[in-house]
Amino acid sequence: xxxxxxxxxxxxxxxxxxSYDDGNRNDLKLLSIINKYGLKCTFNxxxxxxGGSSESWYLTAKEIQDNIVSAGHExxxxxAHHKAPGLTDLTDGIKEVLEGRAELERxxxxxxxxxxxxxxxxxxxxxxxxxxxxxxxxxxxxxxxARSVGGDNDGFMLPEDWYDWRPTAHHxxxxxxxxxxxxxxxxxxxEYIGSQWPRLFYLWGHSFEYQANDNWSVLTDxxxxxxxxxDIWYATNIEVYNYTMAYRSLMYNVDRxxxxxxxxxxxxxxxxxxxxxxxxxxxxxx
Length: 286
Known about the structure:
Blueprint: E1 4-7, E2 14-21, H1 27-37, E3 41-45, H2 61-69, E4 74-77, H3 90-108, H4 131-140, E5 169-170, H5 176-185, E6 199-205, H6 207-213, H7 216-226, E7 232-234, H8 237-248, E8 251-252, E9 258-260, E10 267-271, E11 274-278, E12 283-285
Parallel strand pairs: 2-3, 2-6, 2-7, 3-4, 5-6
Antiparallel strand pairs: 1-10, 8-9, 9-12, 10-11
Helix pairs in contact: 1-7, 3-4
């Protein structure tokens, strides 16, 4: 009895999110493309490297506010000066994250809890401490998740460890379209009962790479293929995180036949081949 699986908002079985780093001027072209197709992106910014004018390589705070924040995309931490936690000492690593988060919040308002590791991230350590040390101070500093790299996630899994969130693929991955087709062909509700968990396609990169390689068509092709699908939720990284945490906050009776939603989110779930919508504060029999 009672195989339970999360469903994304609107009872969708799939989600798509993007993550692009550094806040360089080519992000404006990226935005013009993804906005056209209704995709959502998280932009990972170094607080000390915001542009001083419209002629600078980095976007200015006003450009970020007008084109990213106001358009419903996410701003996330990329440390203050683009320093990889694995290549700094503990004190400097903490300072880079804390200053980066604080300055972005002062500049753009709100609460910023997302992050992407710069450079080698948590793949290389030469400073005498470990990933667990980094994970601890990120949690202590109020960071909810951190995007990593280091291998394709073509099973489209949500992270088991939110401080080592592995994307599906970089946009220059030669298997990108193969992964997109695989993702789109999945009928999650028809999978074996133990495999009906929701799937996430997570694309990452740097917009200047499109410009340098003259391959903006890769992004356009990706958007054309993956956008406009009724079974897909298009979300930022933090929206995926927040919704997943809301689902995991559901409370059950011992027999798991009654579920209560204590969160402010409406949550969807599938239980024994039936779909349920559980609104904020609602108790439902399943």
